[in-house]
Design a protein that fits this description.
alpha+beta, SH3 type barrels, 2 domains, twelve-stranded mixed sheet, five-stranded antiparallel sheet, 33% strand
């Protein structure tokens, strides 16, 4: 569905692979069989259920978490724009489709069955999904007032004949989607705007509060996420905003989704707002030969595990879903050279210049490191290390177990979840030394009601000394 002239289509191509991975994250997990317990509870990310049904479930406080069922998503992001700026919006989600395998009932009709063999192929009753896109273009000048648009996604039914054995009926239920857009000035010393996009499930008013979730999913948007593009403007990262926009970034409220810069590294004209937390400019590894419905897993491991499935298990997987069949077939036919590519890749090395490669200029010598008297792997190397009593200097203040610190995770090269701990108070539990002689500080959060349990299990957050500020004189308490 589109509300955009073809000539003005945005350049979402660089972000498309990541957006597709989000769309099908968890769609069907290894071992890709219907009988697998993990594939009996599906659709866990970005599910927008009917509002009345959601309210009746007494949902918890709204947050950025996209793994909770909700009736809406809210994206807020920052952008600088010119006078002729145009906003491109692409809402993407899955529409559930029930695949009913039916056999003749003997009275001229059909009845649903769990499984059916026809023409040497097995067919299973199961839920599939159909990808849907809603595109919208509008000049940012039109957002001087809040903008609301409503879209209808029709239902439908298709029948596939299996000859005398029976038939397959695929059924979809209609959906209603409401999109709200607004633009306001952000708090900043330079012209900066805050864009708000709210996506709502505007249908399902007839769904009762006692209806099971499996039925409600038929009237829900599944894996909902949004691509935003701007012409004559730039977006600013919320994970690593410029210093002058940091306060405005903290004022942005995102519910059940979080926006990151997308596309090629360095690009600032596309944002992907996803129910799955990511870094700016996420990418699908070029070595990946295809989707496995689990972008957080290692392709090599999943591929090797898929190869270990028995012929009967592969037959069930192929009957479970056409996309599962494509995975099994692809892995079965994966050539050795492609499997070797999955074994690993080094991306941190820089290419040698052409002149250095020819020997025209001397190659720089590798840095010299002192040779320890005791190897790091020798148990004796730990004799001088005591995480319980060791201290590290931070801004001239000794920090050790018991010290109170304030967290400031670095914007690059850290865990995306750590960024949400910025500014929180924490208690140091240990000061650690790794094999590269780098210090790390293990902490628990001061306002975490489960801090004592985490201390007992030694489940800590870890930060470098540069990511903490001592509170007071740093003395343990």
């Amino acid at each position: 569905m589109t509300d955009r002239p073809e000539s003005s289509a945005p350049t979402f191509a660089a972000a498309r692979a990541v957006a597709d991975a989000v769309l099908y994250e968890g769609y069907l997990l290894y071992p890709y069989r219907r009988s697998s317990p993990k594939n009996r509870v599906r659709w866990q990310f970005g599910v927008l259920t009917p509002r009345a049904w959601t309210a009746a479930r007494e949902p918890g406080p709204e947050s950025v978490a996209g793994s909770a069922d909700a009736w809406r998503q809210q994206t807020e992001c920052l952008l600088e724009t010119g006078r002729s700026a145009v906003l491109h919006v692409r809402l993407r989600f899955l529409q559930l489709q029930h695949r009913s395998v039916q056999e003749p009932d003997g009275d001229g009709g059909f009845r649903e069955v769990d499984a059916l063999d026809a023409g040497g192929q097995r067919h299973l009753t199961f839920d599939e999904a159909v990808p849907r896109d809603i595109d919208l273009d509008l000049p940012l000048a039109a957002l001087a007032e809040p903008h609301v648009r409503e879209f209808g996604i029709p239902g439908g039914e298709e029948t596939e004949s299996l000859g005398d054995a029976g038939r397959v009926v695929r059924t979809r239920w209609p959906l209603a989607v409401r999109v709200r857009l607004s633009l306001t000035d952000a708090t900043a010393p330079f012209p900066l705007r805050r864009l708000r996009l709210v996506t709502e499930n505007a249908g399902g008013d007839d769904v009762g509060s006692d209806v099971a979730r499996a039925e409600v999913l038929r009237r829900s948007l599944v894996a909902a996420h949004t691509l935003l593009g701007v012409r004559d403007g730039v977006f600013h990262s919320l994970l690593d905003p410029p210093a002058w926009a940091a306060a405005a970034a903290r004022e942005c409220t995102n519910l059940h989704t979080f926006p990151v810069l997308a596309g090629e590294a360095g690009a600032c004209d596309v944002v992907l707002s996803s129910p799955i937390l990511m870094y700016d400019h996420p990418q699908v590894a070029p070595e990946s030969p295809g989707d496995l419905f689990d972008a957080t897993e290692i392709d090599e491991i999943l591929s090797l595990r898929t190869l270990t499935l028995t012929d009967e298990e592969k037959r069930e997987a192929r009957a479970t879903d056409p996309r599962a069949a494509a995975i099994v077939d692809r892995v079965d036919g994966l050539p050795p050279e492609m499997m070797e590519r999955l074994h690993g890749a080094i991306r941190s090395l820089c290419p040698v210049s052409a002149t250095a490669a020819r020997g025209d200029v001397p190659m720089s010598e590798p840095p010299a490191f002192p040779t320890p008297t005791v190897p790091w792997w020798d148990p004796g190397a730990d004799a001088s290390v005591s995480p319980e009593t060791d201290a590290v200097l931070v801004a001239g203040v000794p920090v050790a177990r018991g010290s109170l610190v304030r967290l400031h995770p670095r914007p690059h090269g850290t865990d995306a979840h750590d960024r949400f701990l910025d500014g929180l108070l924490a208690r140091v539990q240990a000061v650690l030394l790794d094999v590269d002689d780098a210090r790390h500080v293990a902490v628990t959060l001061e306002d975490d009601p489960g801090a004592e349990i985490k201390q007992w299990y030694r489940r800590y957050y870890y930060f470098t000394p540069e990511e903490i500020d001592p509170v007071g004189d740093g003395a343990p308490s």
